[in-house]
Amino acid sequence: MKLAVLSDIHGNLPALEAVLADLDRRRPDAIYCLGDLVGYGTFPNEIIALVREQRIPTIAGNYDVGVGLNSDDCGCAYQTDEDKARSARSIAYTNAVVTDETRAYLRSLPRHLRLTFGEGDKRFALLMVHGSPRRVNEYLFE
């Protein structure tokens, strides 16, 4: 079985379109998205529309949770004042342009997907999360 896993699209419509075109050629058995559909990029509504049109199972990322709740906090772990200021501008922009339908979709996303593949002794389970199994904004470092 061939799976494609996407994550952290962050409103970048041209990148998502390129990835989907490549996946169309590769023909995976399934495509999953691990969240952060919105934020930073200028196409949050278009990203949501395309992911929904493609029927890609998607979980919520930390940015999706923040925008879904119309929060001014993306749950990001920025270290510098410059990065924090850039993030504040980004989430303010995203909150200003998303439609009510987009916001409702983001609120509806599950926090994880639990999948099982195979049969008998070749069966395995997969837990898909954004961040960690505990929190969508828990950053795990080596």
What's the mean pLDDT score?
95
SSE order: EHEHHHHEE
Structural class by helix and strand composition? alpha+beta
Instruction: Tell me what portion of residues adopts beta-strand conformation.
Output: 5-15%
**Overall 3D shape:** globular
Q: Terminal Cα separation, in Å?
A: 29 Å
Number of helices: 5
- CA radius of gyration is 16 Å
Residue runs with pLDDT of under 50 for 5 or more positions? none
How many strands appear in the DSSP assignment? 4
Query: Can you list the strand order of the major beta sheet?
Result: 1-2
Helix content: 40-55%
Tell me about the largest β-sheet.
2 strands, parallel
Folded structure, characterized:
The protein has 142 residues and is of the alpha+beta class. Helix content is 40%, strand content 14%. The chain has helices at residues 13-26, 44-53, 62-68, 81-97, 100-108, and strands at residues 3-6, 30-33, 112-117, 124-129. The strands form two sheets. The protein has a two-stranded parallel sheet. Strands 3-4 form a two-stranded antiparallel sheet. The mean pLDDT is 95.
